[in-house]
Amino acid sequence: MRIPFIAGNWKMNKNVEEARALVSEMIPLLEKVKGVEKVICPPFPALLPLAALLIGTDIGLGAQNMHWETSGAFTGEVAPGMVAEFCRYVIVGHSERRLHFGETDSMVNRKILAAIKAGLVPILCVGETLEENEQEKTKQVVHQQVMEGLVGVEAGSAQRMVIAYEPIWAIGTGRAASAENANDVVAHIIRPAMKELFNKQVAEGMRVLYGGSVSSGNAGEFFSQSEIDGALVGGASLRAEEFVAIVRAANRE
Ligand code: PGA
After folding, report:
1. How would residue 252 be classed by pLDDT, with cut points 50, 70 and 90?
2. Does residue 232 have its Cβ closer than 6 Å to ligand 1?
3. Is 166 a catalytic residue?
4. How many structural domains compose the chain?
5. Residue 253 above 80 pLDDT?
């Protein structure tokens, strides 16, 4: 049984005061929903104050990025151990990182290995561009992102991590993938790649999310699919009612 998983990726939104206000509004509502792993990923400055607010709750905290080195002359970067002081999760390889900051599969792989070493649960993002989709290259692209992102990961760690399938054309566009197509990608590309890399148990046991224009209106369709275990939510995670409604939709109890 895979426990549903919903993470809110705030991206570069909300200062500390706004972050505190939003999470204070969410806490009592989210705490009522059991049976779903709930995670909030705010910008770095909000991690410390939100970690304090979330003490004693069952809501997890995640970073949106980190560097792979443990310390040193990397101006502007944050080390895995620094993230692990406040967080249990870290998003790795989001398409915006790949697109705007030149992250390659090999950099993503270094981050995944460093996150695991620091005791974090990585949320690995994969997904094809519109062009790749139209050229029917989804399988090739997503398979490669999974295989190269997870080089050197041990099966035990792989089973605990989370993969988010986020077709780039669906992110922030209001144009979500169809639930059936997303389910097919997970069933026929992502889980088979995990089986190839690890084994059947890992492939069937790990959580795979959908991300890209998830809202309270379409969340239920995704969560009713057999292979989709939750969502990585961008825009809709910035409003308490909307995010909580998505978390509620993931609850199978
Ligand atoms: P979106 O973003 O829900 O705003 O489309 C998803 C993501 O980028 O993780």
Report:
1. confident
2. yes
3. yes
4. 1
5. no
